[in-house]
């Protein structure tokens, strides 16, 4: 028997479509198991300031289809200090919260890991980020929706690219990871992707152009992952203007459009499974783990691995993209 009577739940860092489905799943799975739920607004910030509200099943009605997070989110500097974390711990004790489920990406899990160790507090993480950059899970909540948003946007840009015979560099998010760029390029039939994972290995722009990627086409689309390593779409386009002035180049930065919108079925299902699994994990006395899904099975990934180990891209996809862009 677990002695957890009340679970606190929060979302932190960048919002991601499907976070609401995860909040719903954690709330309902906890109540199903006789555990009370308290919702913490604005992530770790709300934990410090005490923006905490008891949640019933009705509080999470009609949210599975909504993007963003009903709990709001914030990037909190105070929680990065030991003093801030003491305040957060005091608040948990005062509220009678015995365990936390934190939904978010790398920064959220890093905060959770430090806090859990410092205050010996049970925390389970649920990976919610469009970046898909957490080790130990095949997918993160929000990634599939963002990928579909990218695909739809590129489909539209392609109309202009082909009408004007232009070369477009389209920048997508991903922080330091190329999952959105690489898979977005394959899904939208783009010619190439420029991603940080292989930026140090080769000059991706030169390779793309020298391979004669426009031989049989007038227009071309290249997806560029944001990051210092790639230089972003603006950096790449600047290079083209000086090194390959024959091209008529345009840049589109998709930006935060990628974070919004109603989650796809895949993200809703993933979030529902992971949210329910987070409650199971706490009942099973797990702590300091992130819920993952590998080969369609729920796994528990220690925070130290999820955050510290770089999740590798699948290199076979690079080859697929290269072959299909002839
Ligand atoms: O981590 C999610 C993400 O959207 C990244 O892809 C991006 O680099 C970052 O957040 C942008 O953060 P913000 O919304 O704070 O500008």
Task: Please tell me about this protein's structure.
- This protein has 326 residues and is of the alpha/beta class.
- The protein has two domains: 183 residues, 3-Layer(aba) Sandwich (Rossmann fold); 116 residues, Phosphofructokinase domain (Rossmann fold, 3-Layer(aba) Sandwich), CATH 3.40.50.460.
- Helices cover 41% and strands 18% of the residues.
- A seven-stranded mixed beta sheet has the order 3-2-1-4-5-10-11, with helices on both faces. Strands 7-8-6-9 form a four-stranded parallel beta sheet, with helices on both faces.
- Helix 6 packs parallel to helix 11.
- The mean pLDDT is 96.
- The chain binds 6-O-phosphono-beta-D-fructofuranose.
- 6-O-phosphono-beta-D-fructofuranose (F6P) binds next to loops.
